Amino acid sequence: MLSPEDREREARRELWQKRLERARRSLESYVAATRYPPESRPSREHPDQMELAEPERTRPLSAKAAEDGTSDVQLRLKQDKVFVVGDEAVLLTVACEDSRREPRPCSVVSAVAHEAAHMPGAGGVAGVPLAFGDEGRDGDAVAGDGMLTGRFQPSKQGFAMYSGTLRVDVRVRSGSVEDTTFFDVLYTPAPPATFTRRVRESLEGGSLALYLSVQVRKPGRYVVSGRMDDEGGVPFASVSFNEELPEGLHEVQLSVFGKLIRDEAPTFPLVLRDVEGFLLKESGDPDRELMVTLRGPVHTTREYSLQQFSSAEWKSSERDRYTEELQKDVMEAQKQLDAVLAEKQGPPKSPESP
User: Fold this and answer.
1) pTM score of the predicted model
2) Distances 8 to 3, 5, 12, 340 between C-alpha atoms, Å
């Protein structure tokens, strides 16, 4: 049976053992997570971000009818883009189905586009009616398939001078059940900068650098992101840029980090696709002004061997600083644990006198 002193010592040993294990895990996790720079990351980290946003969601046509069991009709809602710039249009789709995803009769009673209520000064622009149809035209893919499609082009439908979130309220009927749903889009009337579609590439410091030419109308901090696929079209990496740009013609660097290429071993040539960008605003709502997205393939790289790229991990003063702090936590926990263990063993015995 342990004495009170032994129990207290054992509790301290367990405490520092756990702290040591936690400190080691924190260090290992941080070092592993920062092998590559923030602007060049493997696709597996955020697979949902490797495609442009095309939100699709389901919800009960009537929450009340779903609760009391009088209707199982669900709405399937989809839009082909969230961000709309200049003369771009967005396609909005509505369909009705039951709990088994079987089609149900569906009709759009009314649809109105207007400024989102949370926007400053909302209500200054009158709502604009939109038409939804299933006739295989005006953006509708297949006639008579039960998918009702509406085409919304803010610049041509009353919002040419508006910047911010626009909401489309849609009233839907299926049989005797009727209720309202909505779509949101973020609209920028005039892009602050434009991609020229000119791209050059070079090997720099053991990494692959892609330079996109950009004509900047409004100076400020720009965030640009793109997706990289291998030769077979398999998503490989996400690349990004986040820096200040002055007015005029400039290049945005999207870098594919060398060690990321060495570790993932993609098949060349790589393809840069679906490049998005925006000007980040210091204040206000919305917090950004959008550039027109480059959809689809933008640039195909030359062929390279893996040996042309560096296997060195990313280095930065910030990474070194955090790693050093985490190493201190490990050493401190180890020191405290060693002290408890030494205390448990007790001082060395002196040799007996003859």
Assistant:
1) 0.82
2) 9, 5, 6, 10
